[in-house]
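Appendix C reproduces, verbatim, an entry submitted by the partner laboratory led by Prof. M.T., so that reviewers can inspect both the input and the predicted structure.
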Amino acid sequence: MATLLDILADISMTDEHLFEDKSLEEWLVKLELPEIQTMLELNGWDHIDFIRQVISKEDLAAMGINNDKVKRKLFKSVEEDLENFQHGSVPETVEEWLTSIHLSKYLNKFISCRMGSVSRVLEIWEVELTSILTIEPIGHRKRIMRSIRDLRTLQSSFDEAEKRKKDRKPKTAAEEKWLHSKEEMLRGVDYPVRYFGSAIVTGPESTKQSGLICEQQQSKIKSNQKVPEFRLRISASGVELIDKQTHTSTCSYHIEDISFVSRDKSNLLVFSFISSDRKLSIKMCHVFKAHTRNQAYEACSTIAQSFEVAFQLKHEGNGVHYEEKS
């Protein structure tokens, strides 16, 4: 008669699909070894998923499986994600939890031993599984403790998230309508852009002039021409153009020198802003192309927010000093 050791030794290392979506019975039938099902179940290895994820080398040895080759084959997938033990949230009831690990038959034991709440389950010691709950199959005890450890980790992450949420400073009414916090605007927010260049604004109508310049600058770019890439850093100080390769600032514009920002109506990826050159007494329209429409919208909105934050700082007597670069 074939033994478990003999059959498992013949399994190919690539036959991991044998475990997928199959019950213990189906798996053993495929191995032509249904007679060992009772032996496995008596030791608590009655679910194929938990055989893969919880059984140890010591457990195999206790059942007479000592062949290193067999152990390597069985433990090949143990390091994979333990999806059978992971929950999207901590279960609300002990019944829900036990059902999720296919051990609902122990529900009455948990309730009678005053372990009928999830909070109490999270405090269970391994020794209590035998001394109080009298759960004999080692496979079931290991399955329960593995699940409890995962639930503790999950609960801890939820608690930390709640603490951060409580400690977080609430946004003011002004901040609610903007994309970024005041602290983010002080540090600066970066957007990846392509720079289409700039042109002198000759007329008084900013909206019309910026639209025309956007069209002109786009038409100058040939279809196969490579447009330089930059990071546009927007802060309460102003706008800074940073070279993507060298990470150095190529030019910057003080917030008080920026007078207008808009998106190109004909191409929503393109946006521009107008700045004043105090030395030359002229206004320049700078044209950019974002990677997505949403980024173009956010960049314009962030520049608009920088006006308000700069105004607040000045009103508070904390005006931002910005060293202009060229």
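The first strand starts at residue 189 and ends at 200. Additional entries are available on request from the coordinating office.
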